[in-house]
Amino acid sequence: MTMVLVLALAGAVGGLTGPALADEGPPPADRQLLFYNHAYGVLDRETADAVEHSGYLRDFANFQVRTTTGADGRTWTGRYLMGRETYLELFGEGDLPGQDGTSGAAGLGLSTERAGDLATVTGRLRDQGVEPVEFRQTRDFGDGVPVPWFDAVFTTTTYDAFGAWGMEYLPEYFADPRGNTEPASYPGDVGRERYLSDDYQDRLMRDVTYVHLGVTETDLGNTVPLLRAGGFVVRPVPGGVLAVRGGTTLRLDSVPRDRAGLRQVGMSLNRSVDHRHEERIGRSTLVVGPGSHAVWTFGGTP
């Protein structure tokens, strides 16, 4: 761990005052470079199974249960709520190998909207003293031929239970009709809206607007430089940090490993609803309305 990461960790969770955290690290970029793409969380088996078999979620969102084959033939099966530009990916204990499949594990993908911006983010990480870890993900559509999917950058190769990465979708993926992507809206368009389908329009859920996660001190310290490099404004809050800018607010609390995990997700709706609806899904509760928003709270949230 470099000194910049140590300082980021101290500022985020070491009890320093608000101004000390705000002054640490470079200011946000004039133009936002990274945006919330998706988060994933590993839930207890009861909740994961309830999500998978929920009839309500199939009406509420563009909901899918899908198996994906990535680099080196590795596969994973997730439960997906897909919006216009953003989505949520949920697993149960044991669905992923090793530590990634333990309860409370989670991840956060932040993607670019314009080709070439990930290189700028990578340079800004180096400017912070972080040596980026770069990786290219592929996708196999079933014919055994890997299609370049996206490039990714991490701040570290080690983590306790949570990892965040920057990513940029690749032209080869958009060119493959099996990806069901949309035409570019402008030169260099590698954006989230182009990547996701318009099937969300027939459901209530529109986009993810808020994500609250519990992460360890080490994982928080490894994440703050990436947020800053992407143009987020990182502010101290009691117990952690709040990252704003770009349409989705991210709250990361510093917690012991046994309290880590996905805590709450806020979503915008395609239309306003008049009444409050509460749906119990395993050990989680999804509250929809009144108005044009929904909040999904997961077990273990204080």
TrEMBL record:
Sorted UniProt keywords: Signal
InterPro entries with a match to the protein in the record: DUF5829 (IPR043869)
Signal sequence residues: 1-22
Domain of life of the organism encoding this protein: Bacteria
Name assigned to this protein: LigA protein
Source organism of this protein record: Streptomyces pristinaespiralis (strain ATCC 25486 / DSM 40338 / CBS 914.69 / JCM 4507 / KCC S-0507 / NBRC 13074 / NRRL 2958 / 5647)
Classification of source organism: Bacteria, Bacillati, Actinomycetota, Actinomycetes, Kitasatosporales
